[in-house]
Design a protein that fits this description.
9% strand; 3 helices; alpha+beta
């Protein structure tokens, strides 16, 4: 597990999307990229949820996001290593 900066670290400014879906504009990607710096040495991120734009950004950064409904991180890691962890993109917001 690693700490990461959240959207609140960006000055609390309202996000402008200029006609793009929320979280998919280049400004949002740059914020997601900044938040992903703490996992830049990782190939996969297991998480309980994230926004669709962040999910897309992780893929663009060549980090595979896996959204899980499991609450126990040790169980999630075990299942991932066994190739049995299911990605739940329906949990994206």
């Amino acid at each position: 597990m690693r700490e990461k900066p959240g959207h609140g670290h960006f000055g609390g400014r309202a996000e402008e999307t200029h006609g793009h879906r929320h979280g998919f504009d280049e400004g949002s990607h740059l914020k997601h990229k900044s938040m992903a710096e703490t996992i830049s040495d990782c190939k996969v991120v297991l998480c309980g949820g994230m926004g669709m734009g962040a999910y897309d950004s992780m893929r663009r950064l060549e980090i595979t996001p896996i959204v899980t409904d499991l609450k126990d991180i040790d169980e999630a890691v075990k299942l991932y290593l066994e190739g049995k962890l299911v990605d739940h993109p329906e949990l994206l917001h």
